[in-house]
């Protein structure tokens, strides 16, 4: 099956402004740059949910933007339905851009404050939906609002963003992304600005739409508990300093994490239960300092902080994301990724243990 | 009374015109009584805090939890009298008690003042020396062109506190408590520090004058998970080593579960439930608290046990009649729609709730959820 979206060794560099007075003005070859995303390979199938989690600056938003076509990779290739998106032109380019829609974090900024809900939804409909008549567009807009649970729709059509709550605005943003019948949605921290009591209902709306319309969703978040909820049937990818360090089915990732960074994250998260959270064991990092993207540590970028640091290749060789299926069988590179039930980790000691078959049991339990 | 006044070690006591009474040593650090705050807006009065009463005991950590717009930040600002000019405190008392600062003096300054009556110099002394607040946006709380050392110097000077080497030494001790490298931080500008470091500098700065009460507004919001963990650990350790009460304002239930002794849940400007932290999470009785806990997915929770609260928070200008939660409450009855319940003791006098149906709420809601997921 051709993956809906496929990333092959995708890297994105950003140039950093040189401060005045720093050396290297004339003739030096090194323009300082950072790798916001470094050698990321993954596949997302039709109708699949993938959550990408990580701390700020780990490259998760940049990855989302590249998939949505808002940024170009510096290296590597992105395929949409098997086609390299840099080769797409005219009609096929348009099909890709319509097929992949983005929902942004802040619904206070992503909706035009001077446009009514109807106008917000009608603009893409008029442009891309070949029906034309005003009444048909109005009834389609009403349908879309009902799909995102803004009912009765007639109450919302003529409202302006300032008359809506944060949750309602985000629903309008979801409805807008659906106007062009996408097959893939990139949701970047789409519920972090929404009140806690209604986050889940917004996520449930997205899950229902995924089911009804066969949408695939890339959900970017910093909240692992939320990611587990949303990607219950899907996968979670963990990013650290631009690299994907672990990728596994959601529940398996949370219950039997393989990468030390994932383990540390999970141990640090407080739980909404005083008995659990006060007795939870927190894994201490070796250092609290997050390395600068300008001066990444050699080898595994996590090694200066890693509580399970073993020396040797941790310091010298960048670990590749390697996926395993049961029994420790190994395949490397983009080919093996995206297969529905494989889990992948980029950590030398974890890979050694996987190969030795030591963790088969825990993985089996998690399933 | 007079003797107390004369022997009071700090200037502010003598200057204050507020009513003061001698109180026993176990008086709460802060006692909020019937506080009501509203903002003037074009459409009408925004009723941000409505008749809120609670107490904070010496050394206690109280969490104020609620959604955005529930009035929790307004409460915090009200407690240090930093409300904007559009706000009116129409009712209430904020009674603050000073304990003897552990120096053996029996009479020194112990007494009760009403913070709402403080003026001028007394108010300035109350802030920071008695009660410090750490605000949400950690970068905006600093003057960007001053080094951290100067920010400490300003505060110390304004309150006639230590200067020069003594101040640096005191700051070094505080930085150690909040796990900061004082060599690096003391001469740094705010922009040279990460978000988590700035937050810890602010906590250290808040504790500089040894206040009895520290108010933290969303202390971990907008910080990364590992930084959040660090701040939580720092706060826990500080509470073990120093003697102060803590009020923290957050929408993050797990933070309350981690740090608080007691939890106060706010909804639409009112306290709807107040109890010790274990009761709040194990045996909540207000439908809103129950709903809020169920609405937050956790790492261990099964997907089917997470459920949203229907509807959205009310418009604070145009509040519904009766209980403000009734439009979203699955258990609402005729009485809920007409009459607003007050915060009263429920099972015992440590567990307070404002709900007509608290006795059956938990059983009914649990039964409903099981029915729905079956």
Mean pLDDT across all amino acids of chain A: 86
What percent of residues of chain A are in strands?
15-25%
Q: Give the strand line-up of the largest sheet of chain A.
A: 6-7-8-3-9-10-13-11-12
Which class of the largest domain in chain B in CATH terms? Answer: Alpha Beta
Element pattern of chain B in H and E: HHEEEHEEHEHHHHEHEHEEHHHEEH
Largest sheet of chain A: 9 strands, mixed
Largest interface: A-B, 40 and 43 residues
Strand order of the largest sheet of chain B: 6-7-8-3-9-10-12-11
What's the gyration radius of chain B in Å?
22 Å
Would you kindly provide a written description of the structure presented here, covering whatever features stand out?
The complex is a heterodimer of chains A (367) and B (374). Chain A has helices at residues 60-67, 90-99, 107-110, 117-128, 134-147, 153-157, 166-178, 196-213, 224-230, 250-255, 260-268, 274-279, 313-316, 348-355, 360-366; strands spanning 5-15, 33-44, 49-53, 75-80, 83-84, 100-103, 184-188, 216-221, 235-240, 243-249, 322-325, 329-332, 343-345. By secondary structure, chain A is of the alpha/beta class. In chain A, helix 4 (117-128) packs across helix 5 (134-147) and helix 5 (134-147) crosses helix 7. Chain A starts with a strand and ends with a helix. Chain B folds into 2 domains: 2-260, Rossmann fold; 278-373, no CATH class. In chain B, the strands form 2 sheets. Chain B has an 8-stranded mixed sheet, sandwiched between helices. At the A-B interface, helix 7, helix 8, helix 9, helix 11 and helix 12 of A face helix 9, helix 10, helix 11 and helix 12 of B.
């Amino acid at each position: 099956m051709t993956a809906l979206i496929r990333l092959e060794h995708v890297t994105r560099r950003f140039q950093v402004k040189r401060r005045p007075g720093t050396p290297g003005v004339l003739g030096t070859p090194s323009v300082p740059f950072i790798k916001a995303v470094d050698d990321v390979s993954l596949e997302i199938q039709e109708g699949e949910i993938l959550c990408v989690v990580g701390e700020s600056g780990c490259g998760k938003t940049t990855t989302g933007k590249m998939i949505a076509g808002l940024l170009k990779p510096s290296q590597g290739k992105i395929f949409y339905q098997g086609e390299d998106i840099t080769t797409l032109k005219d009609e096929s380019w348009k099909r890709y851009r319509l097929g992949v829609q983005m929902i942004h974090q802040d619904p206070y900024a992503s909706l035009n404050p001077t446009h009514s809900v109807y106008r917000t939804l009608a603009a893409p409909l008029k442009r891309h939906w070949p029906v034309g008549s005003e009444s048909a567009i109005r009834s389609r807009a009403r349908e879309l609002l009902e799909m995102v649970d803004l009912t009765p729709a007639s109450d919302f059509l003529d409202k302006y963003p300032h008359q809506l709550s944060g949750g309602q605005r985000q629903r309008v943003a979801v409805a807008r992304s659906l106007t062009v019948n996408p097959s893939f949605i990139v949701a970047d921290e789409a519920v972090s600005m929404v009140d806690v009591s209604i986050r889940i209902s917004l996520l449930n709306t997205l899950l229902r739409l995924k089911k009804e319309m066969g949408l695939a969703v890339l959900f970017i978040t910093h909240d692992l508990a939320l990611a587990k909820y949303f990607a219950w049937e899907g996968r979670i990818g963990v990013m650290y300093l631009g690299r994907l360090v672990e990728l596994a089915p959601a529940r398996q990732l949370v219950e039997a994490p393989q990468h030390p960074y994932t383990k540390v994250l999970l141990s640090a998260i407080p739980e909404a239960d005083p008995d659990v959270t006060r007795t939870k064991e927190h894994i201490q990092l070796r250092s609290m300092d997050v390395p600068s993207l300008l001066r990444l540590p050699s080898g595994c970028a996590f090694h200066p902080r890693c509580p399970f640091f073993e020396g040797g290749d941790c310091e010298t060789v960048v670990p590749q994301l390697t996926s395993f299926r049961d029994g420790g069988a190994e395949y490397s590179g983009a080919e093996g990724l995206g297969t529905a039930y494989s889990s992948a980790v980029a950590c030398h000691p974890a890979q050694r243990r996987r190969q030795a078959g030591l963790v088969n049991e825990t993985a089996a339990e998690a399933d | 009374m007079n003797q107390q006044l004369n022997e009071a070690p700090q200037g502010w006591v003598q200057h204050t015109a507020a009513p003061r009474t001698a109180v026993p040593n176990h008086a709460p650090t802060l006692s909020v009584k019937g506080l009501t705050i509203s903002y003037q807006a074009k459409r009408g009065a925004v009723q941000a805090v409505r008749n809120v009463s609670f107490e904070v005991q010496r050394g206690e950590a109280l969490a104020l939890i609620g959604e955005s717009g529930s009035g929790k930040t307004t409460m915090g600002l009200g407690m240090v009298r930093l409300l904007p000019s559009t706000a009116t405190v129409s009712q209430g008392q904020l009674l603050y008690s000073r304990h003897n600062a552990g120096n053996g003096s029996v009479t020194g300054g112990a007494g009760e003042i009403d913070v709402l009556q403080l003026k001028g110099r007394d108010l300035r002394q109350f802030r920071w020396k008695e009660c410090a607040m750490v605000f949400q946006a950690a970068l905006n709380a600093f003057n960007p062109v001053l080094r951290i050392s100067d920010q400490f110097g300003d505060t110390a000077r304004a309150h006639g506190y230590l200067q020069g080497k003594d101040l640096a030494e005191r700051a070094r001790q505080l930085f150690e408590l909040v796990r900061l490298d004082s060599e690096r931080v003391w001469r740094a500008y705010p922009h040279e520090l990460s978000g988590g470091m700035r937050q810890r500098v602010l906590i250290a700065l808040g504790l500089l004058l040894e206040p009895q009460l520290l108010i933290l507004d969303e202390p971990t919001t907008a910080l990364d998970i590992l930084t959040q963990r660090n701040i939580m650990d720092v706060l826990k350790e500080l509470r073990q080593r120093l003697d102060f009460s803590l009020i923290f304002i957050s929408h993050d239930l797990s933070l309350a579960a981690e740090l608080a002794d007691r939890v106060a849940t706010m909804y639409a400007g009112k306290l709807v439930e107040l109890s010790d932290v274990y009761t709040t999470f194990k045996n909540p009785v207000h439908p809103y608290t129950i709903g809020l806990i169920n609405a937050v997915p956790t790492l261990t929770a099964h997907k089917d046990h997470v459920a949203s609260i229907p509807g959205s928070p009310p418009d604070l200008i145009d509040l519904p009649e009766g209980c403000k939660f009734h439009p979203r409450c699955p258990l609402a009855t005729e009485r809920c729609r007409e009459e607003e319940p007050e915060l009263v003791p429920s099972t015992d006098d440590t567990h307070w709730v404002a709900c007509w149906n608290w006795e059956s709420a938990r059983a009914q809601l649990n039964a409903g959820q099981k029915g729905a997921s079956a």
